[in-house]
Amino acid sequence: QLFSFVALIAGLATGVWLAEKTNLLFNNTHTLLGISVIALFFLQPFFGIAHHILYKRHHSRTAISHVHIWYGRILIALAVINGGLGLKLARNSKGGEIAYGVVAGVVFLIYLLAVMLKRKGGKGEKVVVVERRGSVRRGARRERRGSRRETSQVSSSLSSL
Fold it and tell me: What is the mean predicted confidence (pLDDT) over 22-34?
Protein backbone atom coordinates (compact mmCIF):
# COMPACT_ATOMS: atom_id res chain seq x y z
CA GLN A 1 0.00 0.00 0.00
CA LEU A 2 2.86 2.33 0.76
CA PHE A 3 4.42 1.57 -2.63
CA SER A 4 1.11 2.33 -4.35
CA PHE A 5 0.80 5.60 -2.47
CA VAL A 6 4.34 6.59 -3.52
CA ALA A 7 3.49 5.65 -7.14
CA LEU A 8 0.37 7.81 -6.86
CA ILE A 9 2.46 10.82 -5.80
CA ALA A 10 5.01 10.12 -8.55
CA GLY A 11 2.18 10.00 -11.10
CA LEU A 12 0.85 13.31 -9.79
CA ALA A 13 4.29 14.91 -10.04
CA THR A 14 4.73 13.64 -13.59
CA GLY A 15 1.26 14.81 -14.55
CA VAL A 16 1.73 18.30 -13.10
CA TRP A 17 5.10 18.62 -14.84
CA LEU A 18 3.63 17.56 -18.18
CA ALA A 19 0.51 19.71 -17.75
CA GLU A 20 2.62 22.79 -17.03
CA LYS A 21 4.75 22.14 -20.13
CA THR A 22 1.66 21.80 -22.34
CA ASN A 23 -0.43 24.54 -20.70
CA LEU A 24 -3.12 22.06 -19.61
CA LEU A 25 -2.96 22.45 -15.83
CA PHE A 26 -6.32 23.24 -14.16
CA ASN A 27 -8.18 23.90 -17.41
CA ASN A 28 -9.62 20.47 -18.22
CA THR A 29 -11.56 17.67 -16.58
CA HIS A 30 -8.63 15.24 -16.42
CA THR A 31 -6.33 17.45 -14.36
CA LEU A 32 -9.11 18.74 -12.10
CA LEU A 33 -10.51 15.27 -11.40
CA GLY A 34 -7.03 13.78 -11.03
CA ILE A 35 -5.89 16.28 -8.43
CA SER A 36 -9.23 15.97 -6.60
CA VAL A 37 -9.01 12.18 -6.49
CA ILE A 38 -5.42 12.29 -5.25
CA ALA A 39 -6.38 14.81 -2.55
CA LEU A 40 -9.20 12.46 -1.48
CA PHE A 41 -6.77 9.52 -1.40
CA PHE A 42 -4.93 11.24 1.46
CA LEU A 43 -7.91 10.51 3.73
CA GLN A 44 -7.83 6.77 3.01
CA PRO A 45 -4.90 5.90 5.34
CA PHE A 46 -6.74 7.53 8.25
CA PHE A 47 -9.84 5.44 7.53
CA GLY A 48 -7.56 2.39 7.33
CA ILE A 49 -5.91 3.10 10.69
CA ALA A 50 -9.30 3.68 12.34
CA HIS A 51 -10.58 0.43 10.80
CA HIS A 52 -7.55 -1.48 12.08
CA ILE A 53 -7.84 -0.13 15.63
CA LEU A 54 -11.58 -0.82 15.83
CA TYR A 55 -11.25 -4.26 14.22
CA LYS A 56 -8.67 -5.28 16.83
CA ARG A 57 -10.97 -4.02 19.59
CA HIS A 58 -14.23 -5.56 18.34
CA HIS A 59 -12.94 -8.51 16.26
CA SER A 60 -15.37 -7.63 13.50
CA ARG A 61 -15.96 -4.91 10.95
CA THR A 62 -17.47 -1.65 12.10
CA ALA A 63 -19.04 1.23 10.20
CA ILE A 64 -15.60 2.76 9.59
CA SER A 65 -14.52 -0.53 7.97
CA HIS A 66 -17.24 -0.18 5.38
CA VAL A 67 -16.41 3.51 4.86
CA HIS A 68 -12.77 2.52 4.27
CA ILE A 69 -13.70 -0.24 1.82
CA TRP A 70 -16.30 1.69 -0.19
CA TYR A 71 -14.39 4.97 -0.15
CA GLY A 72 -11.40 3.12 -1.63
CA ARG A 73 -13.52 1.38 -4.27
CA ILE A 74 -15.10 4.67 -5.33
CA LEU A 75 -11.72 6.40 -5.55
CA ILE A 76 -10.28 3.56 -7.65
CA ALA A 77 -13.26 3.75 -10.02
CA LEU A 78 -12.80 7.53 -10.34
CA ALA A 79 -9.09 7.02 -11.02
CA VAL A 80 -9.83 4.53 -13.80
CA ILE A 81 -12.34 6.94 -15.34
CA ASN A 82 -9.75 9.70 -15.08
CA GLY A 83 -7.24 7.50 -16.88
CA GLY A 84 -9.63 7.32 -19.82
CA LEU A 85 -10.06 11.09 -19.74
CA GLY A 86 -6.27 11.41 -19.81
CA LEU A 87 -6.08 9.27 -22.94
CA LYS A 88 -8.67 11.51 -24.60
CA LEU A 89 -6.77 14.63 -23.53
CA ALA A 90 -3.53 13.20 -24.94
CA ARG A 91 -5.36 12.52 -28.23
CA ASN A 92 -4.43 8.86 -28.00
CA SER A 93 -5.44 6.61 -30.86
CA LYS A 94 -8.86 5.02 -30.87
CA GLY A 95 -7.12 1.64 -30.58
CA GLY A 96 -5.28 2.82 -27.45
CA GLU A 97 -8.53 3.98 -25.88
CA ILE A 98 -10.19 0.66 -26.72
CA ALA A 99 -7.24 -1.28 -25.28
CA TYR A 100 -7.44 0.79 -22.07
CA GLY A 101 -11.16 0.10 -21.81
CA VAL A 102 -10.70 -3.63 -22.40
CA VAL A 103 -7.89 -3.94 -19.83
CA ALA A 104 -9.86 -1.88 -17.29
CA GLY A 105 -12.93 -4.03 -17.89
CA VAL A 106 -11.03 -7.31 -17.52
CA VAL A 107 -9.32 -6.12 -14.33
CA PHE A 108 -12.73 -5.03 -12.98
CA LEU A 109 -14.24 -8.45 -13.73
CA ILE A 110 -11.32 -10.23 -12.03
CA TYR A 111 -11.71 -7.95 -9.01
CA LEU A 112 -15.46 -8.56 -8.90
CA LEU A 113 -14.90 -12.32 -9.08
CA ALA A 114 -12.33 -12.15 -6.26
CA VAL A 115 -14.71 -10.14 -4.06
CA MET A 116 -17.54 -12.57 -4.71
CA LEU A 117 -15.38 -15.62 -3.98
CA LYS A 118 -14.00 -14.05 -0.81
CA ARG A 119 -17.49 -13.16 0.38
CA LYS A 120 -18.74 -16.69 -0.33
CA GLY A 121 -15.78 -18.23 1.50
CA GLY A 122 -15.98 -15.79 4.40
CA LYS A 123 -19.20 -17.24 5.78
CA GLY A 124 -17.54 -20.08 7.61
CA GLU A 125 -18.31 -21.45 11.03
CA LYS A 126 -18.22 -19.07 13.92
CA VAL A 127 -15.55 -19.75 16.47
CA VAL A 128 -15.23 -18.86 20.10
CA VAL A 129 -12.12 -16.93 21.07
CA VAL A 130 -10.95 -18.08 24.49
CA GLU A 131 -8.46 -15.76 26.13
CA ARG A 132 -5.95 -17.25 28.55
CA ARG A 133 -7.53 -15.36 31.42
CA GLY A 134 -10.61 -17.51 30.94
CA SER A 135 -13.00 -15.02 29.36
CA VAL A 136 -14.89 -16.08 26.26
CA ARG A 137 -15.60 -13.81 23.32
CA ARG A 138 -18.20 -15.05 20.80
CA GLY A 139 -18.57 -14.34 17.12
CA ALA A 140 -15.00 -14.20 15.85
CA ARG A 141 -14.76 -15.81 12.44
CA ARG A 142 -11.03 -16.31 12.01
CA GLU A 143 -8.67 -18.47 13.95
CA ARG A 144 -5.67 -16.60 15.30
CA ARG A 145 -2.57 -18.71 15.80
CA GLY A 146 0.59 -17.60 17.48
CA SER A 147 -1.17 -14.92 19.49
CA ARG A 148 -2.27 -14.81 23.10
CA ARG A 149 -5.69 -16.08 22.14
CA GLU A 150 -6.58 -19.68 21.56
CA THR A 151 -9.55 -20.51 19.37
CA SER A 152 -11.86 -23.44 19.18
CA GLN A 153 -15.00 -24.23 17.20
CA VAL A 154 -18.36 -23.48 18.70
CA SER A 155 -19.75 -26.70 20.07
CA SER A 156 -22.92 -27.59 21.85
CA SER A 157 -21.11 -27.72 25.17
CA LEU A 158 -19.82 -24.14 24.79
CA SER A 159 -23.06 -22.71 23.48
CA SER A 160 -24.51 -22.79 27.00
CA LEU A 161 -21.81 -20.37 28.28
Answer: 92
